[in-house]
Amino acid sequence: MPVRSILRDAEVDDAGMCEVRRQLAYVPQNPDIGEGKVRGLIESVFDHKANRELSLDQGELGELLEQFSLEQDILEKNHQDLSGGEKQRVAIIIAVLLRRCIFLLDEFTCCWSSRSP
Amino acid sequence: MHLSPGRVHLLLVIPFALILVFKLKLAKTTLIATGGMLLGSSLRGNIVGINNFYQDLRRNEDRYLYQLSTGATHMEAIMPYVRKNLRAALAPSLARTATMGVVSLPGMLTGQILGGSNPFVVVKYQIAVMITIFVAMSLSTALTFLLTTGVGFTEAGILKKSVFTGKEG
Description:
The complex is a heterodimer of chains A (117) and B (169). Chain A is built from five helices and two strands; from the N terminus they run H-H-E-H-H-H-E. By secondary structure, chain A is mainly alpha-helical. Chain A has a two-stranded parallel sheet with strand order 1-2. Chain A is globular, with a radius of gyration of 15 Å. Chain A starts with a helix and ends in a 12-residue tail after the last strand. Chain B is mostly helical. Chain B has one domain. Helices cover 78% and strands 0% of the residues of chain B. Chain B is elongated. Chain B starts with a helix and ends with a helix. Classes of the chains: A mainly alpha (117), B mainly alpha (169). Chains A and B meet through helix 2 and strand 1 of A and helix 3 and helix 4 of B.
């Protein structure tokens, strides 16, 4: 894997950061992803040049929503209106869909209630 | 390398220099008159635009960094901010241009009409002038955003704090 060689040889300089970012998925503690509808935000991630070869599979997205106990109509809600736990689960779903080999998870369950998956 | 006022001025001059080169065929008086007018009028859009652009990025830094973490290039990550702040910087000028000579009359135009010039000719020129200013403002503000990103961000795409403090590091 290219990222392993970059990390092991300590070649991660400023310019190499972009290459490293393409190998990892990050779930922040307070996922402030952006403005607008959740569906649009998820799609915008897959519009980046680095993610073009991964096409967004709507069926898989629906399954993941179900697995994380999110309603399907959450996609049509505004991201700002979601609760903290919902925002975190949306960020995790994006991370899963990106199919990266390294996951950076920053206290990603801190807003979950005991009933969340 | 921080964003000193001198550097910003230099960046503001580049687009106008290009505009002036294209206008060289015109008479010298026209060149100086329109050039000065465009420089002066676009300044406000540039100052407001660039200020809001960097403040907006600083306020929403988490959002911006998240976009970078998903694999967005620096350009892809700043584009929403470029779009939003370009629109905000140009909105007043666009409203002025749309109503110019029809509803809103600037002092200079009123003076011309009161001084005895043909109102139709005066209004026609005024509309042409406003459109010229608007186009120059759009181009120069967009270029200012894109040209300052070279000094406002590190190579990894992180917003430099020195943009706001003026200090290195």
